[in-house]
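Quick one:
INPUT:
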């Protein structure tokens, strides 16, 4: 199943391993990491693990991390979503 959402201004797509460089670049921007990672610079491997966990979550549970692109210009402007850790018990 292909997941994709669109609005007049945005296009949302599930985070893929191929998108790790884009996602890592966004996550390491000062204004982003200040709020998400307490100022810590995440490694490319950590960003990759988020993408891999997101893929598994979409396959198993139907949700994961969405990358948000501006429709005009196609620039990555954000991300949103949920990740379920493999060691979490089902709710």
């Amino acid at each position: 199943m292909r997941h994709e959402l669109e609005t007049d201004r945005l296009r949302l797509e599930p985070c893929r391993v191929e998108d790790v460089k884009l996602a890592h670049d966004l996550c390491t921007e000062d204004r982003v990491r200040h709020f998400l990672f307490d100022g810590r610079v995440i490694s490319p491997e950590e960003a990759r693990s988020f993408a891999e966990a997101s893929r598994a979550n979409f396959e198993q549970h139907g949700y994961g991390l969405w990358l948000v692109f501006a429709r005009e210009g196609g620039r990555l402007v954000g991300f949103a979503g949920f990740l379920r850790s493999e060691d979490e018990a089902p709710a």
